[in-house]
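Late entry, evening session. Most of the bench is empty. Finally got around to the prediction I had been postponing all week. Sequence below, unchanged from the version circulated by S.P.
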Amino acid sequence: MKNLTSLLIGCSLALAGAALAQQPVEQPSPSKKKQAAEKTHPAETQPGVNAAKPQERPAKQTGAMKERGATNEPGATNEPGAGKGRKTPATQESATAPGTNVSGQPTGVPTPGAKQQAEQRRKGMKGPAAAAKTSATPAAPAAAASAAPSVPAAGQRNTQANMGAKAKKPDQQQVQQIKSQHANFRAQPKPQQVPAVTFNQNRRIEGSDRWQGPQYEVFRSYRPERHDQGWYQSHYNRVELIGGGYYYWNNGYWYPAWGYNPSAEYYAYDGPIYVGQRAEPPDKVIADVQGVLQQMGYYKGEVDGLLGPLTREALTAYQADQGLTTTAAIDEPTLDSLGMG
């Protein structure tokens, strides 16, 4: 009887011990789980932002964590009763890199060391890339900037050199030499090479209404007129036959004397020709201008003392390069610019 009683008591103790052994040491209450989730949630929902340092560590760890040596494997659960090495799908992304938390703290709460390592890794990843980008990106524009202007610069230098060679004026000694060569110059009519213009009473010098300044007033107000010899002799002191036509002189300019002699009305240009107060003959002044422009590279024709199309074209080019009003005529500013005023 005693043996049976002892056997029953032993079996009861064994069963109780077995039942007790199967229960976990301690299970965290739902309230503790909720608090832990609230603490880890801000760090988990903002990837790349370091979570605040936890105020306190959990006081106790589950038996399953102790058995695993407090090592958190990626995807492994820390819930009691889970098998060793058992992995479950991760439900939330950790704020720290997988496998870096080896201090036994719950996943998602980085330690100060892990925070520094994460910052160092992040800086290390950004640093070389930013440095490479900074060093490599400006290189191409810099190379392009240094290489691109080479061709335009050469063309620009050539253009400037040509302009400088063409616009270089002869010195005063050369001008005087050219003028001395034409001291006794007399123009001859050349209707085949330089056609004569015809009389047109309503003609106006084209573009003269846009020429500003008192030195262009004679061109703006010029109107061709036809009169006989008596009228010209009564109005002007000097009327001469020059290059196949009669001209009258008035206050520094020579003008065609239309009608003075109908048999001598060869004029290559119908308009005022400025010669200055010395009243030099217009054909001589035209020849001087042609010689200077020829030496400068503007005039390609013959020095003939006639203000024909080639001479007027050379005058236009010279005036444009010098910033003068392009009158295509011998005016006061042009003659002064050439050193013959």
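Two things to note before I forget:
The longest strand covers residues 245-250.
Strands lie at 239-242, 245-250, 253-256, 273-274.
Will write this up properly tomorrow.
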